[in-house]
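Weekly puzzle thread! Below is a chain. First person to post its structure in token form gets bragging rights.
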Amino acid sequence: MAISMTEAAAAHVRRSLEGRGKGVGIRLGVRTTGCSGLAYVLEFVDEAASEDQVYEAHGVKVVIDPKSLVYLDGTELDFVKEGLNEGFKFNNPNVRGECGCGESFNV
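Winning reply:
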């Protein structure tokens, strides 16, 4: 499988990279935290490491470290606006449960 990104998410990342003035894409990863065990981590990438997996969608690179890929394989990254709120939405087929606040998940 792979990691994919909607056009809305790619457009948001592109605008952010342009505003930042540098970067080759965005890193998507997971870290241990919260009441359900794992949380998503997003950060800008200036250079991918040799062990990283790099996917490209709509002209934007998504970089993932090998340890996170196990939890993220098949995930679609979207950017949604709901009323006054906007943010990334993770459509991850591996998730088996989420905490009540939506900040963490388990597989």
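Puzzle host: Confirmed. Bonus trivia for everyone else. The helical segments are 7-20, 66-72.
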